[in-house]
């Protein structure tokens, strides 16, 4: 890898620079601090910038969203304190899902094998009724099946089937939720 050869000219940010700068300002005012701004206000601001946000969404303090125009959040979702959504590609969160504090949904990375350290992006999908525990990393291109659970501190680098609990680094299936306890 040669960082002096890195170029990002082909990356489509999904919107114009003026809109992006306006978002940075709005984010600084309403999202980037501990002051308790109501979730309804945050949801409406996200909608103004092109996000699709459902009803009853809770957005806690210091949530970082890179590009709201690449975010889809269904009804009754909880996004915890200090969640980072690096959505260089689309992020979709299903209804009744919980993204717990300090989790990181990362749609972008780099190809370390290429001299130019090329940017690679892929969407993330969180299914309905999922729980992403605290301090979980979700890698680019991952889909979480409905009613799946990612245990706290997990590093999720592959798709997760519906109805299972995963945990660890890398995350592996710990339990099938349909099995009797």
Compact summary:
This protein is an alpha/beta fold and 181 residues long.
Task: Please give a structural write-up.
The chain contains 2 helices and 19 strands. It is α/β, with parallel strands linked by helices. The protein has a single domain, classed as UDP N-Acetylglucosamine Acyltransferase, domain 1. The strands form 4 sheets. It has a 7-stranded mixed sheet. It starts with 16 loop residues before the first helix and ends in a 5-residue tail after the last strand.
Outline the secondary-structure elements.
Layout: H1 17-30, H2 39-48, E1 52-53, E2 58-59, E3 64-65, E4 71-73, E5 78-79, E6 84-86, E7 91-93, E8 98-99, E9 104-106, E10 108-110, E11 119-121, E12 124-126, E13 131-132, E14 137-138, E15 143-144, E16 149-150, E17 155-156, E18 164-167, E19 172-176
Parallel strand pairs: 1-4, 2-5, 3-6, 4-7, 5-8, 6-9, 7-12, 8-13, 9-14, 12-15, 13-16, 14-17, 16-18
Antiparallel strand pairs: 10-11, 18-19
């Amino acid at each position: 890898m040669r960082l002096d050869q890195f170029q990002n000219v082909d990356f489509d940010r999904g919107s114009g620079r003026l809109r992006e700068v306006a978002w940075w300002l709005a984010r600084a005012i309403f999202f980037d601090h501990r002051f308790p701004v109501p979730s309804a206000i945050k949801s409406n601001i996200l909608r103004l910038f092109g996000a699709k946000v459902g009803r009853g969404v809770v957005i806690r303090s210091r949530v970082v969203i890179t590009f709201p125009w690449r975010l889809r959040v269904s009804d009754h979702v909880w996004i915890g304190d200090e969640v980072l959504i690096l959505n260089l590609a689309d992020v979709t969160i299903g209804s009744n899902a919980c993204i717990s504090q300090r989790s990181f949904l990362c749609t972008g990375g780099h190809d370390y094998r290429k001299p130019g350290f090329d940017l690679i992006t892929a969407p993330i999908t969180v299914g309905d009724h999922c729980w992403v525990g605290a301090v979980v990393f979700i890698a680019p291109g991952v889909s979480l099946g409905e009613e799946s659970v990612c245990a706290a501190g997990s590093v999720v680098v592959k798709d997760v089937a519906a109805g299972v609990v995963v945990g660890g680094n890398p995350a592996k299936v710990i339990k099938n939720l349909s099995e009797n306890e």
